[in-house]
Design goal:
The chain is of the alpha+beta class. The chain has 6 helices and 5 strands; from the N terminus they run αββαβαβααβα. It has helices at about 5-10, 25-30, 65-75, 85-90, 95-105, 125-135; strands at about 15-20, 20-25, 50, 80, 110-115. It has a 3-stranded antiparallel β-sheet with strand order 4-3-5. Helix 4 (about 85-90) crosses helix 5. The longest helix has 13 residues, at about 95-105. It starts with 5 loop residues before the first helix and ends with a helix.
Length: about 140
């Protein structure tokens, strides 16, 4: 039988495997059926910045971390990432990433900060006047 034959795929193993897509794991299985990020009540906006905690132990030290948790930690290791970037980098739905980040936040593995909203940034005109004033000195 041909490997692309549907009968062969069924014989090869479970219904959880598809030759074209690879292993299939439903998002609710990754989060244990949870849809909200932990009891901390933190909201993970798409632009929230996630940084790996400097006090966090290595990923090999915690056997309770799933592969998705480890993937998020590895994505945060080189630099701070937004929630949207983490979802894209891990190829996971944003809702799943939010729940997994809630787990990591509760374990002290990551820290979350919000970027300064544009409304709170100084006006560009004022900054240009300050620069011009400094040049005049």
């Amino acid at each position: 039988m041909n490997a692309q034959d549907p009968d062969t795929r069924r014989e090869q193993g479970s219904q959880w495997y598809d030759n074209e897509a690879g292993p299939l794991v439903r998002p609710y299985a990754m989060t244990g059926g949870r849809t909200r990020p932990g009891p901390t009540g933190v909201k993970f906006d798409l632009i929230a910045l996630v940084t790996l905690s400097t006090a966090a132990p290595g990923t090999d030290d915690d056997s309770t971390l799933g592969p998705e948790h480890r993937a998020l930690i590895e994505l945060c290791r080189p630099e701070t990432q937004s929630v949207a970037e983490l979802a894209a980098g891990a190829d996971l739905p944003v809702g799943v990433v939010r729940v997994l980040l809630g787990d990591l936040l509760e374990r002290g593995r990551v820290t979350v900060s919000r970027p300064v909203p544009p409304a709170h940034l100084p006006d560009e005109r004022i900054l240009r006047e300050v620069i011009e004033g400094l040049r005049a000195l």
